[in-house]
């Protein structure tokens, strides 16, 4: 159990480091980590998704996701419109500017990963990833 407690604490420290590094690096694009993640996820979803789908993918409540998407819309990274199939939901579509930003975000993520991961090899990261994925599957 002591190792599990220590592991949990290390994950918290790593998450904080990642958060601060992301905030610092994404600032050059006028983004924070939440907005950068939303753009990346939207791009991964084929460029169009509902607000609810995005908030679920990022584990963010709908109101916070809505505020972040409103900022992205004001910055020209996304467009929002009513879903013709379901008037109660909004569709979010990435713009050309948003697609270009995703390329920059990807480049910056590589810098963030280098600054946070230290001397960890790709093989070691793969083994850790497998173990963490088992933990996530057990949670469901």
TrEMBL record:
Gene3D superfamilies according to UniProt: Winged helix-like DNA-binding domain superfamily/Winged helix DNA-binding domain
SUPFAM superfamilies in UniProt: Winged helix' DNA-binding domain
Pfam family, one: MarR_2
HTH marR-type domain: residues covered: 1-137
SMART domains the UniProt entry points to: HTH_MARR
Claim: Lipid metabolism is one of the keywords in the record: no
Keyword terms of this UniProt record: DNA-binding, Transcription, Transcription regulation
Record keyword Transcription regulation present: yes
GO MF term list: DNA binding; DNA-binding transcription factor activity
Protein name stated in the entry: HTH marR-type domain-containing protein
């Amino acid at each position: 159990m002591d190792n599990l407690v220590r592991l949990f604490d290390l994950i918290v420290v790593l998450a904080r480091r990642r958060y601060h590094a992301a905030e610092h690096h994404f600032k050059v694009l006028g983004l924070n980590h939440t907005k950068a993640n939303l753009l990346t996820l939207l791009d991964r979803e084929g460029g169009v998704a509902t607000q609810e789908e995005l908030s679920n993918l990022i584990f963010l409540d709908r109101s916070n996701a809505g505020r972040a998407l409103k900022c992205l819309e004001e910055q020209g990274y996304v467009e929002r419109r009513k879903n013709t199939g379901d008037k109660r939901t909004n569709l979010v579509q990435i713009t050309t500017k948003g697609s270009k930003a995703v390329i920059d975000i990807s480049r910056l993520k590589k810098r963030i990963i280098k600054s946070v991961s230290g001397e960890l090899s790709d093989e070691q990261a793969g083994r850790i990833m497998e173990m963490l994925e088992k933990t996530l599957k057990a949670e469901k």
